[in-house]
Amino acid sequence: MSDSQRIHITDVSPRDGLQNQAVHLSTEAKLQLIALLAEAGVQSVEATSFVSPKAVPQMADAGELVPRIAARWPQLRTSVLVPNLKGLERAHAAGAQEIAVVLSATETMNRKNINMGLEQALDVSEQTLAAAQALGLRTRAYVAVAFDCPFEGETPLAEVLRLAARMHAAGAGEVVVADTIGSASPGMVKERFAALRGVVPVDRLAVHLHDTRGMGAANAWAALEAGVRRFDASVGGIGGCPFAPGAAGNLATEDLVLLAERSGFATGLSLDGLLSAVDFAQAQLQRPLGGRSIAWLQRQRDKRREAEAMTA
Amino acid sequence: MSDSQRIHITDVSPRDGLQNQAVHLSTEAKLQLIALLAEAGVQSVEATSFVSPKAVPQMADAGELVPRIAARWPQLRTSVLVPNLKGLERAHAAGAQEIAVVLSATETMNRKNINMGLEQALDVSEQTLAAAQALGLRTRAYVAVAFDCPFEGETPLAEVLRLAARMHAAGAGEVVVADTIGSASPGMVKERFAALRGVVPVDRLAVHLHDTRGMGAANAWAALEAGVRRFDASVGGIGGCPFAPGAAGNLATEDLVLLAERSGFATGLSLDGLLSAVDFAQAQLQRPLGGRSIAWLQRQRDKRREAEAMTA
């Protein structure tokens, strides 16, 4: 297996997955979810965010969660979202080793999301990245709404390239290009990553996909073909807003692993392990979860269990 | 729009979609489904099969259906499956202008499916293709289980290439490479079509995908990238066995259209028109249908209708 056949998955279910859920998971339950992910072979998680507990009460336990993860899984790469220097301070105080900043690629999205204009948001992201590096932390920088913006329509590619280049120049360890509303097509992924490779070395590029239109797996394949080897995904596809009927969440980790492994890539993740995490998450969130492959994966597991029971 | 950006979709829902359904559609209902497909812009359908009515009672009205389609939609390209010379005779008597033969790529699949060995099935396919051409009919030839066989595991690529080349040499207008059990990955699609292009001109190659593992759209993208422009698909993804929980059917026509159009390809099909066909089919079959994009497509339609109602 050459290095080019190895892909790196950050499971973002504890953060992007849980941040919009009606049911709020306890710190204990989050640790159980992360335990199941670690057992499944996940080596990198996005664990939480240091944002206002008023705005995102689901993440209010960030300061408690981070040191408990570090104590229990010292080898697990654990990233946390920070909106600004104040968030960085809290994350650092909690012992975080890696932080992520989020920069939206349009004026309106930044105003709606963080009540700042784009240029101010860019400043804040650069300052936060610089301060984090000064503290010796690893960093990721999201470029959000990098395909379409819910307010402005298609995001100009030139703007995405400009911001990705700025995040790279600011020292971001990974520049994570995000299809925040799940509107990308594989043709767009192909085109945009071909251009992005010109401004950020491909081994520093990651892709963050949502599966709103059922194209998450196709977009992941287009990214793989473009040379991208770093992916965000969320076990069970957790992340859709439960109040929008049919709204799909993130690209499901199990879908990505199935697609990649069947296509000759190595992920290091166990599909059975991921199914156990899906079981747990849906029991906690009290709604059915799972990506597009879940029915097939569960049938395979059932068949194997039946066969084992017969020979037992 | 260059020719290379134009894709050709054969909607197989009236045949591959309906042949395994618990609810049997009347001839009138099938004509209504085809009417909706034609209204949606579909220019090619696989309408029925001339097989034993005992084995496949859902297709028992083939002899009545074909002339009624021809009378009502003289421009609609209408293909029918024929298992052998006897089926061809019946299809020809009914006025069929295009037939398809099905050759499975493994010994066991042929034995289970048509109680013949592979070499005998190859003979029958070649004879049927020759006879159909002598009658002036257009022809398609399926190479089934071209990725994996449910009985023999992965189908050797060399065997798929041999059979595809034989079907091409026998004059098949299209060689339809079929992922019959929906086990293909985009990596396999890429590899196999790169090789298939060496034995069949790419404009004579078509791909027939199932969505069992949620990789139908990703596989379609891999086929597009390999230069394939001819696709089978089934509106609403009809085609799964209703007795196998979670068993997915064919690649949904609406998923393929959404992916292709958003990626810069032209299909000539209307998503709204396809949604009407899904509505009709699920009312008839009394179960929810729709591909991976259906929830999003329906939400868009609902929003548009609400907006129209407000301005009305």
UniProtKB/TrEMBL annotation, chains A, B:
Keyword Lyase set for record: yes
Start and end residues of each Pyruvate carboxyltransferase domain: 7-275
Annotated GO biological process: ketone body biosynthetic process; L-leucine catabolic process
Family annotation (InterPro entries): Aldolase_TIM, HMGL, PYR_CT
Database matches in SUPFAM superfamilies: Aldolase
EC number(s) reported in the record: 4.1.3.4
Keyword match Lyase: yes
Assigned protein family: Belongs to the HMG-CoA lyase family.
Name under which the protein is recorded: Hydroxymethylglutaryl-CoA lyase
Organism: Acidovorax soli
